[in-house]
Each structure stands twice: as C-alpha cells, then as structure tokens.
Write a sequence for this structure.
C-alpha cells in the first residue's frame, strides 16, 4: 500500500517540478470556459431556462465541468500505449507491483496535482470574471466531491482499457483520439445530457460516460437533487464495479498475447 | 524543384508506413470523422432549443463549420508541430534536422505530414454543400477562386500561430500545455464572432486571429455584407502571421544550442 502512496507522491512531485507551465494553462482554460459562456448566453438569448437549467446554472455547469475535467483527465492511455510499443511493459510486468495499479496511482497523483494547482486557482479566476454561483450548500459540495472521485475512477478505467488495446492493435493513436472525442460528447462536458433528444438519452443511460462529467456537474449546479442524485451516485458506483470485469479480462488476455515490438 | 520532389518522396514513404498499420489508419480517419460529427451534433442539438445564435440561423452556423474544416484539414495534414518541443528539442532530434540540406522548418513539416487528415476537407465540402442547399445560396465562377484564396489564408493563419508557439521550445525546453489548449481556443473561430464580448472579439481578430479561419471568410459566401471587410482581409492576415512565425523560427534556430545527449 505504501508503495502505491509513494507512486502518487512521486508523480505529484514530478508535476510540481513543471508547475510554472500550469499558470498559462489556467489562463487558457479560463478563456475556454469564457467562450462557452458567451456561446451559451447567445443560445439562451432571452430565454429564462432550457431543460430546467437557467443561464446562471448553465454557466456554473460549464465552469465546473471543465475544472472537474482537469482532475479526472489524464494521459495514462497514451503512456500505456507508448510503454507497450517500446517494450517497457515487459520489464514493468516482472516488477513487484500491479502495472495497472501503478498507472492508476500515477494518474491519481496527476489528478490531485491538477486539482490543487489548476482547478482551485482556475475556479477562483473564473468566478471573478463570470457569473458563476458557488452558493451550493455544504452537503452539495460533499456529494460533488464523492461524485468526482467516482468520475475519476470511471474515466481512469476507460483509459486503462483504451491503453491496453495497444496489445492487440499495436498502434493505437486512432482509438485513443476517438475515445477522447466520445467522452467529451457523451460525458456531458459539451452539452448536458438532458439537452439531447429522448431516444439519445435512453441510449446514453446504458453507457458509462455520463458518470464522468454530467453527474458531478449536475450535482454541483443542483440540477440533480434528492432521490435523483442518490440514483445518479449509485449508477456511478455500478460502473466503478462493473468496468473492473473487462479490465481483468483484457489484462489476462494481454499477458498471453504480449508481443514486444521494440525492446 | 528539389523541395517538391523531396515532398513527394516523403509523402509516398509516409503512405507506406500508414498502410503497415491499416486498422489504426482507418480508426484514425474514423476518429477524425467522429470529432467532426460531434461538433455537428453539438450545433444540431443546440438549435433544438433556439432558432438563432447571435442572429445567425442553423444552416449558416453549419456552413461556417463546414468552411472551417477545409483550412483546418490542410493545416493538420502538413503542420504537425504541436509536439515539436518534446519530439525535437528535448530529445535532441533538432541537431539531426539542422544537418539536413533543406530549411529546418520544411524538414520537420516533411517528417510530420499526416495525409489522412485531408479527409476532413472532404467532410467540410460535404457539410458546406448541405448548408448551401438549405440556404439556396448561389455562387459565381470567381467565388471558387476566392474560396481557394480564403482557404489558403486560413491555413496560413493556423500554421503561423502554431509555428510561433512551437518556437517557444527554442527558448525554454520545459513542458508546456499551451499547445493542446490552443486547439481548444481555435475552435471559437467556428462560431459567429458577434456572440463574444469586445475583448474576445479583439483577441480572435488580431492576436490569435482564428476568426479569420471560420466566420469571417465564410460570411462572404453567406452574403453577410457587414463582414466583407474582414473577409477580404483573410489572405493578408494569413501571409502576415505565417511571415511572423518564420522570422521567429529563424531567430529560434540561431538561438538553439542543443539539449539532450
């Protein structure tokens, strides 16, 4: 266990060494949220609300969704792909830890770093410029953070799965890019799921993606309250458990299938 | 001539490497199509809840997006310098580039072509024709020439901005997140500039002139006369920004001392 904690710490320190680069990142992220803010203001025009969300809630939704993304987003799929391609994975496999566990811990170290040095200052800047509302109750904040942890796990699982596909495809950039696009759309980062036509919402309720962005953001904006919120949290837990199955399967298959391309 | 024949040799070499990993190539083309599809879906869903976006209707917005795709596709096929810092500076590859008999920037462009991105231009043309059919737009013979000029202008703007940012690598070899974020910002040229506030309008017009890749030139073909002045300024901005980036590049190469081992 302490080994994995050490992995989180090392990755955190590694990120810290390059922290100056993040100041520009925050600035640009804020511009990004800003542009969406204007886009949504134009979409709302004079309307009071669309699909139960007011323009103020929508602004908060966009800001929270992007800042949460800084936490759950990581590139371990690309890292795994690279390590498989250059054969490093073979060495990693004989080391006394679980390779996927190590990758998850590194992702967590990166996530915690971004949360502290990116999301928090970013959120303060965004709140100063745009009418983002933070009057959420302590309870809401609490459930939001719980939900955020689940969203990190689900997103990391999906990254592990995509990364591991390199064992079978050998060159995986296409799938990794496709995955990112699918997640941006189906997770609710670009559009709240409730904006989609009914049939599309129906389809998406069977997919794990809305556990990544839609649920935490909706909890924060109080678009999901009471029983609805508990159900949403439960669905996140469901995916956290269920997605372990394909990861296990793919991993044991990959170990048999391993071809070191470089070495 | 030498440059041209070199280009074709690299291009054919590139196609061979792509055909080795066929599944991945197809997936990459599909993922491009997918991300274009996602952006269209965004527009379509948004217009389920509103009729106008800053005074522009659904098909006009779709047209702007379709136009944007064409210069963007050309840019992504030939100017893959977003990982220049990590790939060339940190790993010391730049030393090798400088021993080559062509201009260093051209050499890097050759090594990094991604011809499959050109499919995006076809998507763009299809999207534009769809919007044009809905809008009953007509165009004259010289509009085709203007279209080509505007597309080249837009491509140059993109190339200029991204090359300029890549040159930061000559001065500082630490990792930076500016590149991926710049891709995000660049998306805002796809929407009508008038929905943003004055500061952002200014930035998108004069500092990071992404508006010249989408909405400004597209407004000419949409007969939006109030934007004609900007539309015709597109090629000028393109040449200007590409010129600046090449000056920066040459200054950077002079400054370059090598890294790595």
């Amino acid at each position: 266990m302490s080994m994995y904690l050490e992995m989180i710490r090392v990755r955190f320190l590694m990120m810290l060494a390059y922290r100056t680069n993040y100041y520009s990142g925050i600035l640009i992220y804020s511009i990004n949220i800003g542009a969406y803010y204007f886009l949504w203001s134009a979409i709302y025009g004079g309307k009071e609300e669309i699909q139960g969300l007011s323009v103020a809630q929508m602004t908060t939704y966009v800001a929270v969704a992007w800042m949460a993304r800084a936490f759950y987003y990581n590139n371990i799929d690309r890292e795994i792909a690279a390590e498989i391609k250059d054969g490093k994975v073979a060495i990693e496999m004989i080391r006394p830890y679980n390779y996927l566990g190590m990758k998850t811990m590194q992702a967590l170290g990166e996530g915690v770093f971004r949360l502290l040095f990116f999301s928090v200052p970013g959120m303060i800047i965004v709140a100063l410029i745009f009418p983002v509302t933070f009057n959420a109750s302590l309870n809401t904040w609490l459930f939001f953070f719980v939900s955020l942890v689940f969203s990190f796990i689900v997103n990391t699982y999906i990254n592990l799965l995509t990364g591991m596909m390199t064992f079978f495809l050998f060159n995986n950039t296409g799938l990794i890019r496709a995955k990112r696009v699918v997640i941006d759309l189906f997770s609710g980062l670009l559009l709240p799921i409730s904006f989609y036509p009914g049939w599309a919402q129906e389809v998406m309720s069977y997919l794990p993606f809305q556990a990544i962005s839609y649920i935490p953001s909706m909890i924060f904006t109080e678009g999901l309250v009471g029983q609805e919120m508990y159900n949403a949290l439960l669905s996140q837990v469901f995916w956290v458990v269920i997605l372990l199955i394909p990861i296990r399967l793919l991993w044991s298959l990959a170990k048999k299938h391993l071809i070191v391309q470089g070495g | 001539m030498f440059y041209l024949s070199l280009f074709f040799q690299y291009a054919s070499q590139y196609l061979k490497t792509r055909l080795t990993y066929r599944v991945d190539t197809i997936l990459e083309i599909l993922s491009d199509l997918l991300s274009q599809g996602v952006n269209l879906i965004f527009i379509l869903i948004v217009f389920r809840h509103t009729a106008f976006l800053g005074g522009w209707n659904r098909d006009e917005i779709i047209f702007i997006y379709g136009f944007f795709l064409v210069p963007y596709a050309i840019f992504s096929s030939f100017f893959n310098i977003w990982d220049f810092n990590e790939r060339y500076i940190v790993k010391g590859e730049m030393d090798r580039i400088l021993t080559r008999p062509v201009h260093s920037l051209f050499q890097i462009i050759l090594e990094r072509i991604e011809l499959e991105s050109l499919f995006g231009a076809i998507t763009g043309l299809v999207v534009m024709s769809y919007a044009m059919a809905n809008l009953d737009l007509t165009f004259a013979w010289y509009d085709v020439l203007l279209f080509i000029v505007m597309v080249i202008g837009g491509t140059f703007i993109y190339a200029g901005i991204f090359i300029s940012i890549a040159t930061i690598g000559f001065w500082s070899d630490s990792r930076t997140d500016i590149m991926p974020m710049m891709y995000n910002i660049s998306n805002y040229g796809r929407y009508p500039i008038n929905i943003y506030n004055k500061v952002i309008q200014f930035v998108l017009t004069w500092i990071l002139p992404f508006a010249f890749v989408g909405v400004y030139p597209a407004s000419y073909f949409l007969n939006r006369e109030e934007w004609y002045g900007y539309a015709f300024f597109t090629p000028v901005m393109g040449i200007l920004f590409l010129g600046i980036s090449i000056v920066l590049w040459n200054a950077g190469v002079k400054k370059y001392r090598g890294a790595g081992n």
